[in-house]
Amino acid sequence: MGTMDVASARLSECLVAARACLHIERGDLPTIIYGLTGSGMIIIEGEAAIELVPHMLVVAPANKSIDIVAAGSSFGCSRSGAGSIKKSTFAPGSVHRCAIGEGEAALSLVCGCFHAVYGPGLDLFASLASPVVETFDAYDQLDQVMSYAMVELAAREIGGGPMASALFKLVLLTLLRRSLTSANTWVEHLSLLNDPPIARAFAEMASCPAAEFSVQTLCRSVGLSRSAFMARFTAAFGESPMSVLRRLRMRHAAGLLAANAASIDQVALHAGYQSRSSFTRTFRKHYGTDPSDYRSEAKRVLVACDIEADGAPSDEPPAALKVG
């Protein structure tokens, strides 16, 4: 768990009135929802409705729309129409606090999107297929941690982003601790964390992707037979060790290219490839573009994102650059 990090987090407090519907459109990042007061329903695209109560934490997979209504409201969210609930589309993290609907709030919650990684190369929730649903207690103090993180994000002071990410990391660590004892099916997604030898093998590859790893050397380093290692690694990642290593190397190479830190020949060596042509073929297959073109696009995007319309530096990462 110590190698988990939060690369980005955007959070908002949402107040939902009766007969109002908070709608979140599909996005590239998972959505986290934490109930503060009141109760209601969360309807995630393609999933059964989830009853939201105080101290419940829900992580919805990326690329799924979400509707949230207060208790007592029907599920019929629409943009107009007599007797229907008015739907208001909201982008998590776009504002510090938002009020949905008219009148007193019947439900309050924290809503956000995030990017969490294990080591430098594994997106912990990228392959999440079904929602994570866990209910905590007041003494877990997740509501206070969430509030502190939102304050840091809203203040926009120097270091606010890293501070908010560190606070949000506490929330995810609490969730991951729960995964060690929870009987809910979502914990199977994080089976890597329950298998220390496999986690150690991954950490070795992630820390030095250019090293000459093989299944044999990895087996030996973690003390497992080849058959046991392959079965457990594939169960944790859904792919072979060499396939994961290739992804780690490409991610590392993409970072070097984006930073313009070395020549393409040097990047290839840093990614574990002695042949530039072999590196280029693998990179093109992974990212759909040549390394030189990727570097050019990275430079263009970074220059564009560094200056906002008013000339002020932007503290948002370039959305068009995706590594991994």
TrEMBL record:
This is Helix-turn-helix transcriptional regulator. GO terms for molecular function: DNA-binding transcription factor activity; sequence-specific DNA binding. It comes from the Bacteria. The lineage of its organism: Bacteria, Pseudomonadati, Pseudomonadota, Alphaproteobacteria, Hyphomicrobiales. It comes from Sinorhizobium mexicanum. InterPro entries: AraC_lig (IPR032783), AraC_XylS_family_regulators (IPR050204), Homeodomain-like_sf (IPR009057), HTH_AraC (IPR018060), Tscrpt_reg_AraC-type_HTH (IPR020449). Residues 199-297 form the HTH araC/xylS-type domain. It holds the Pfam family HTH_18. Keywords: DNA-binding, Plasmid, Transcription, Transcription regulation.
